[in-house]
Amino acid sequence: MKLHHIGMNVNSLERSKEFYQAHFGFEEEMFLKWGSENIMFLKKGDCRLELIEESGEGGSTCAFLHIALEADDLE
């Protein structure tokens, strides 16, 4: 089992992307919209961050962090 990504809520995808690119060398890997969320994955080597921005008035002000793991075999 290995780490797939670390996800976190952010207030601004663009500001967060600029921060992680300028200070840590991350590059944008993928952007998608899912419901009211704008989601961006940044990658540097084997390290991947998922930035989640709520859009619209119903956006969450609650900060959260999640860790996703990847398994080669579920047995």
Query: What is the number of helical segments per DSSP (H or I, 4+ residues)?
Result: 1
Biggest sheet strand line-up: 2-3-4-1-5
Our measurement of the CA-to-CA distance between the termini, rounded to an integer number of angstroms, reads: 11 Å
Using the CA coordinates, give the radius of gyration.
13 Å
Beta-strand residue percentage: over 45%
**Count of distinct strands:** 5
Sheet/helix structural class: alpha+beta
Question: What is the chain-wise order of helices and strands?
Answer: EHEEEE
Poorly predicted tracts of residues: none
Helix content percent band:
10-25%
Q: Any idea what the shape is?
A: globular
What number is the mean pLDDT? 89
Biggest pleated sheet? 5 strands, mixed
